[in-house]
What does this fold into?
Amino acid sequence: METKRKKLYLCGFLLLLFLSAVLFVLNLGMGSSSMDPSGSLAVLFGKNCDAAARRIIFDIRLPRATAALLLGGALSVAGFLLQSFFRNPIAGPFVLGISSGAKMTVAIVMIAAMQGGFLLNSACMITAAFVGALSSMGVILLVSGRVKNMAQLIITGVMIGYICNAVTDLAANFADDANIVNLHNWSMGSFSGIKRDDIKIIAAMVFIAALCAFFMSKPIDAYRLGEAYAENMGVNIRFFRVALIFISSFLSACVTAFAGPVSFVGVAVPHLIKSLFNTAKPIIIIPASFLGGGCFCMCCDLMARMLFAPRELNVSTVTAFFGAPIVIWIMLKREKREV
Amino acid sequence: MMDNGCVLCAKGLAAGYSKKIVVDGLSFELKPGQILTLIGPNGAGKSTVLKTITGHLPLVSGELMLCQKDLKAMNEKEISKKMSVLLTEKLTAERMTCGDVVCAGRYPYTGMFGVLDKDDIKKVKEAMELTAVSELYDRDFGQISDGQRQCVMLARAIAQEPEVLLLDEPTSYLDVGHKLQILTVIRKLVTKRNIAVIQSLHELDMAQKFSDRVLCIKDGKADRIGTPEEIFEGSYILKLYGIKDGSYDTYYASAEMPAVKGDPQVFVIGGGGKGISVYRRLQRQGIPFAAGVIHENDIEYPAAKALAAAVIAERAFEPISEENIEKARQIIKKCGKVICCADTFGAMNKGNETLYNYAAENSLL
It folds into this structure.
């Protein structure tokens, strides 16, 4: 049985790695000017010196595909952490309003900066998003102490999301027309417009946070049996809770700062991964969710670009289309179990 | 502090919440190989005391020593190697097999990523064997019965290799078979591995049979502490639980409903245990009755005493006296109805045969 399990894990990881690679290459190759995979790889490794192709690959598609991979992974890990923290299978950065909170503060800072006529750097954006994410998280934590029912928690999260969106809209009223277009695009979730320089920052931030999450897999594992048992097994609960809140908020904030709120990835992907691996062991699920989230977002972004080309969809439109039904599915499955 | 051989020691312990102290002035000592059981009415604070010992609630005041060390000065990791727990809260372990749950008990001993080595696996298997759940290793923890679940959780606590095992109502919600199984495993563990157990129980019969010491908590303080023989003596249990109607027999650990008061309408000739069901039926129907003539060492004497409006009793090992026969005859005359549960009469209850014949002659049966 143990060896069977290990084989399953190995196969799962190989499948995810393979999928990531394929989707990554597809993302580089497909678009308004299509290239076959070998062509795009040739450009990537410097064998093709066509300037136009190089520009397309290096300035547009490579940053975008990398962003989808990294930010998708970040969202999924954040989702998994939140699900573990709240013991709620449908918790996630989007449904709990954390993404919206980050979006609100980023939008406000962005509009203020535009009005003032100065440019924002990535650090400002991430900080603003982090503050927003933490404030949403704070409200959720206050409420979660009082409600025991998992649906009530989610409803609270959705409501927080609405409030944050309302504030964002209100702020948008004070922005110039030209800026609204820009803001609107970002506020619906999109991997476009991420520059090469951003990628370095994203990669550094996401890797550090995801690594921190991975190093917490042992206490998260213990926490699965409940707080009291985790405590008895030697987990420093207070530190653990704070760390989990910060890491998940930070991951969500990174995503929102660069790609806006991307919906349902945080709920859907960890769930699919758990089903695939038939376990919820954090040490497996955290890295697998990261890869899975990357695949999911690359796939959705590809669809967002290609389905109605040259018209481009918001990536949230596509992720919601696939993610939201999964949430309903999880709820139905839970119902059945409880009966 | 001097080494007094205690693994768990409380001195003037106050347990509760910052604003409200639930239990105060609790002192006890627990030695390896001992089972200490906390009993007391609902809401007396047994769970609060246990939660304070696990560190889930902060110690309000007093002193608590675990393996000769001040509990306050120990970190979670140190405590986890000395004490493991089995709590009442229901678990929903997502996608965990029973094996996974027991493996979690090895947490304090594994490295940074919690990977179990061969030795850990061996200890997990041993623990599961001890609680007879080995065959559940690969089963989903969410899909086994309450009794099995409790056994798996006990295996988890055992796998943690504690010196002190803390159990909060380990047998609640279990059928009698699982109750016995759990407590037998605990007793075996105490004897074999010389660990100490502190537990809370609601089942007084189990507390009486499986404890080395019993601590009674009532009205926010330790009411009594002692051996089961000292605690389960006389009418103390009635006092502890504030039972005004009804009775509790400490030999059989059985509680009876209050007797129906009034002039007896039926006389029951009992003895040898055959009358118990009749007494209970009459009690349920609300009919006051008299019982006799029963020897004080008869197994149904406690039930008769608890349920009958009047009991005519004979001293142990003595033949029934003329005086008692006459007394019984008077009552039979008054109530005019007799139920005879005895089917044989020997030398010592010859008197009951006399009463039976008297009733038969007067067609009162």
In short: Residues 51-86 of chain A form the longest helix (36 residues). The interface with chain B takes residues 1, 87, 89, 215, 217-218, 221-222, 224-226, 228-229, 231-237, 274, 278-281, 283, 337 of chain A (CB under 8 Å). Chain A has a mean pLDDT of 86. Residues 92 and 120 of chain A are 28 Å apart (CA to CA).
